From TrEMBL:
UniProt domain VOC: residue ranges: 12-143
InterPro entries (UniProt xref): Fosfomycin_Res_Enzymes, Glyas_Bleomycin-R_OHBP_Dase, Glyas_Fos-R_dOase_dom, VOC_core
Family annotation (SUPFAM superfamilies): Glyoxalase/Bleomycin resistance protein/Dihydroxybiphenyl dioxygenase (SSF54593)
Domain of life per record: Bacteria
Protein name listed in UniProt: VOC family protein
PROSITE patterns: VOC
Signal peptide positions (record): none
Length: 147
């Protein structure tokens, strides 16, 4: 690649999708935790509608979406970031105080979490780690970016 070549434009994070063991229970959990709204109709799986469907949740303020998938032939068991596939999903927040606000919110909901972890290694950031009903690791993440 030469200095005159550039990659195509990249926008912001749009959505993530996870296969879940109980799509309705997971949808209710994500709606409660993130305050997202369910798209009224389920989405058939792209290019394989007979294999299952997804329930899609959207945050109207940010446009972030979460797809929760049910597969007809899925293999159940808790998510494990040590297996090949998804390690975790991280949601950025604009201030360090927002991480603490999320910790308080999760406490009110009775959801176990790591607490706000501040570190300088390898760069300064703060992360709050918790897990969904299928053990998918989620993070609330703050990193001060220079102007």
């Amino acid at each position: 690649m030469t200095a005159t070549e550039h990659r195509p434009a990249l926008g912001t994070f749009h959505h993530f999708s996870a296969t879940v063991s109980d799509v309705e229970a997971s949808a209710a959990w994500y709606e409660r935790v993130f305050g997202m709204s369910r798209v009224p109709a389920p989405f058939p799986h792209y290019d394989d509608a007979d294999s299952g469907y997804a329930i899609v949740l959207l945050d109207p303020a940010t446009g972030i979406g979460i797809g929760l998938h049910h597969h007809r032939d899925q293999q159940d068991g808790p998510a494990d970031e040590r297996r090949c596939g998804l390690d975790h999903i991280s949601f950025a927040v604009p201030t360090r105080a927002d991480v603490d606000a999320w910790a308080s919110w999760l406490d009110r909901l009775g959801i176990a979490h790591s607490g706000a972890n501040d570190t300088d290694d390898p760069v300064p950031y703060t992360a709050l780690v918790f897990r969904d009903p299928d053990n998918v690791q989620l993070e609330i993440f703050y990193m001060d970016t220079p102007d």
